[in-house]
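For practice. Supply one:
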Amino acid sequence: MELKSDTERGREGSAPGPGWIKADLHVHSAEDPCDRVDLTAAELVHVAVREGYGALAVTLHRAVFDDPDLRSAAACLKLALIRGVELRVEGADVVVLNISAPEAAAIRTLDELRDWREARAGTGFLLLPHPFYFIGGSMGGRRAERYADMFDAVEFCHFHAGFMDRNRPAVEFARRHGLPLVATSDAHRRRSFGRHYTWIDTGGERTMEAVFDGIRAGRVRRVSPCCSPWDFLHVLWEVAVGHSLRKQLSRRRVPPLGWAA
């Protein structure tokens, strides 16, 4: 059963008990082909280890991050590094975990994505990111209802304050469909990483399988404090101006090694 998070009201979280690990399943890195991001995946791994994370998913926009060497190095540091991607399918963003680059390239429709998850028999994981927000490819409304059965969890978006909180319909959606809610940072800047994350009861295991099982069982506790005034203005700047500027710059960059399209 999912535990209520005190930190959604603004207090920092600590491990709820033995066997719980700290995880962020929606993070971007400098290997992203669609955006400029502060930290490389290797740098993110070191920051995450230093800050006590047990699981991390690097989810580039439209390109699967899959670096076996970095994954092995992370495992030696007791961090489960999960391959992933933030796909835009039929105009909707979906975070897909444990998918290969060829599999991702073959997906063109939401129905095909649903078929992929069913064929994976529990080894693939779909997270509905920032639903019901009026930005980018956020899914909501009738389409979210239609495809609710294919998701393993719903994201509790980092961008919220008392007067601006589109997580409310996401919380209701998750309750209505019996889906767990997980907090993520969706970090593009270093300053955004480390404040929003989820504690997961994995029995102490730091593996992808244990992370998926813990979330699906609802053994989660979210850490997602309200935005400060500065955070709020920073995100508005990023959405309205910064992202577009960096996207223009990114078109002139050669993608580094360590990712596959």
